[in-house]
Every structure is written in C-alpha cells, then in structure tokens.
Amino acid sequence: MRWLSYLMVPACLACCLPAFGQALLVTEEEARASSAASLPEKVGNEAELVPRAAPSLVSPRIEILQPDVRTPVASPTRVQLIFHAVTPASIQPATFRALYGVWRVDITKRLLQYAKVTPEGIKVDEAALPPGAHSILLEVQDSDGRIGSQLLSFKVQ
To answer: Cβ(62)–Cβ(150) under 8 Å?
Structure first.
C-alpha cells in the first residue's frame, strides 16, 4: 500500500505558494513523490525515461535555451524553450504539454498561468521549484499531427 501514497498528489497549491510573480511549477509533495518512486537503473540516461520510439527526423524539435542543465540551478529559475517545426508544417501552441516527474503529473495549466506558448516557443521568467532533482517531459505537436518531445532534467540547489 506504500505505492498508494505516491498517487495522492495534492490538487491545491495553497500549501506551497511562491513569491509574487513566480510560477510554482511543482509542489514539494509532488517532488518528494517523484523522487521516491522507483526509477530505471540508468537514471542518468534520458532514453530510460521517455517512450522507446526513435524520434522522427520530421517531428517538431524542442530546444532548451534555459536553464543551463549542466549545473545545478537556483530557484526561481528562468525557463526558455524554442520550438522548431519542419517546413511546411507549423507548431500548434495549443498542443503544448509539460509532464512532471516519474508519475508524469500534468503541470501545463500551472505553467500557462505565467507564460504564453507561441509557435516560436515559451518563456517563464521565474519558475519556482523545490530543491532536488527534477524532470519535465515537454511535448508539442505540429500541423501535420507529429509530436516532438524533450526531457528537461535538472537539479535545483
């Protein structure tokens, strides 16, 4: 029954509000539940955390400009993504999704409270996250129905 406690993700963010103007993307409870869940043995290998299908050369691509994931980041941090579609297709901003952690908690609505998705990408000036390791699966679809995804993994100090 221990696994059941991981499924009880709080729907209310009032327990963990960020400073004014900061986007609270993940609650401390969600971060703890995700990090406590059993992961594949090769935690550092992104391929272990995303679907096993090979990415298509014509699928949309998501480029991560910020944060610099090579080193731990401070919270709040800036998140900036750029979308690339293969011509003649175009990015469909309404299809953007952000799924947090091992349980793939959909945090898209939280993110969109503080940022606007455009065909060019998305930018969040101050994304608040609790300390620890985080992974967010980002997805976007193009006008031809192809889905591009990118795993954003980083550590908050």
So the answer is: yes
Tell me the two tokens of residue 3.
Answer: 């696994």
Query: Which CATH number describes the domain made up of 20-50+59-156?
Result: 2.60.40.1220
Q: Which residues are CB-neighbours of 82 under 8 A, at least 6 positions away?
A: 62, 63, 65, 120, 121
| Stretch (H or E) spanning 116 | none
Q: What is the pLDDT of residues 61-96, one digit of tens each?
A: 999 999 999 999 999 999 999 999 999 999 999 999
Q: What is the pTM of this model?
A: 0.72
Distance in angstroms (rounded) separating the CA atoms of residues 32 and 28: 6
Q: Which amino acid is at 123?
A: K
Classify residue 12 as exposed, middle or buried by CB count within 10 Å of its CB (0-12, 13-18, 19+).
Answer: exposed
User: What residue type is 126 in one-letter code?
Assistant: E
Tokens representing 104 are: 């793939």
The position carrying tokens 């947090």 is: 100
Token pair of 125 as six digits: 């000036």
CB proximity list for 148: less than 8 A, separation 6 or greater: 55, 59, 60, 61, 62, 83, 139, 140, 141, 142
